[in-house]
Amino acid sequence: MELSAEHFERIVSALRSDGSCGSAREKRRNPRVGLRATVTIVQHNAAGTSTRTTSILRDVSREGIGIQHCREIKAGQRFLVQFPGKGGAIQSYLCTARRCHPVTKDCLDAFHIGATFVRACNFSAKDAGKTSGARSARGREPAAQTKLG
Question: pLDDT digit string (tens) for 92-126?
């Protein structure tokens, strides 16, 4: 999926650019915009529940995103990314991981992940906020267990 100009503008205007990507040397069809923001990654498991984890957005283009995440998401796996929107709205997109590698050779708890957008997702705000007492992969903040569907 390629984001519409409206969806792309909503994401970029809600986040602050760091200017590190999208240089004149960029050879991609849809150049990346370097951003530093917090996003929520929602991953489903076989039992039908979802784990929500905070991640760092590194860049975004009309076709995909780059994030730094606390666990591996293998190429081909799908996940939701939730962007903060204006006025507290949440913008959610289904993504497919295309590449994943550790931040450093010896690092097993931080990964750079490149993913493509599949489609925009709409679900109720009450579904996005359900939580349990579980902790995130980093153990710092509660992780939500959400049944989306």
Answer: 999 999 999 999 888 778 999 999 999 998 754 44
Find the helix or strand (DSSP H, E) in which 106 lies. none
Torsion angle of the four alpha carbons 18, 21, 22, 25, in this order, in degrees rounded to the nearest 10? 140
Give CA angle at 99 (13, 45), nearest 5°: 85
Residues 6 or more apart whose CB falls under 8 angstroms from that of 43 comprise 50, 51, 53, 73, 77, 79, 80
Structural domains of the chain, count? 1
Q: How far apart are CA 126 and CA 149, in angstroms?
A: 13
**Per the structure block, which two tokens stand in for 109?**
């708890």
- Express each pLDDT in 4-19 by its tens digit: 877 777 776 665 444 4
CATH number at residue 28: 2.40.10.220
Q: Is residue 29 within 8 Å of residue 116, measured between CB atoms? A: no
Whether the per-residue pLDDT at 90 is higher than 70: the answer is yes
Domain containing 21: what range?
A: 5-146
